Amino acid sequence: MCLKAVAVTGGSSFIGKHLIKRLVSEGFDVCILVHEREFKWPGIKSIKGDLITGLGLDELIAGREAVIHVAGCFVQPRHEIFKINVTGTFNLLEKCAEYEIERVVFSSGVALCGEPPGRAWQEDDIPRPNTVYGLSKFLAEKII
């Protein structure tokens, strides 16, 4: 099966912009969720919404075959980091389940690992987050 209709959260971020550029170049129909910033890019549908309140998630996900979740927050007050990274991920996944989205890609981060072990990280290393952001990404992974 060739996926063509994809929803992206965090599309206006650094990683998100590069991701959607690639998706569009590969012929995907891309729809992104934007929180505050106006985002205009030819061929991209942007939905103003909010992962915490769920605003815009129906419009973002309806008719999509996959969701790529790269939205995240690391510079807000602690409670906002948790709301966006944990509650927002939960809300998005609930909506994906409602729309029977079978493919969800989640962008986590090395911050959930904690201090480097003195060698390259390995997939079976035990996470030891030592920052609020790292803990929020760890919890988001547990939700998934």
UniProtKB/TrEMBL annotation:
Keywords: Carbohydrate metabolism, NADP
InterPro entries according to UniProt: Epimerase_deHydtase, NAD(P)-bd_dom_sf
Superkingdom in the source lineage: Bacteria
Residue span(s) of domain NAD-dependent epimerase/dehydratase: 6-143
A Pfam family assignment: Epimerase
Gene3D superfamilies, A to Z: NAD(P)-binding Rossmann-like Domain
PANTHER family attached to this UniProt entry: ADP-L-GLYCERO-D-MANNO-HEPTOSE-6-EPIMERASE, NUCLEOSIDE-DIPHOSPHATE-SUGAR EPIMERASE
Entry protein name: UDP-glucose 4-epimerase
Gene source species: Candidatus Hakubella thermalkaliphila
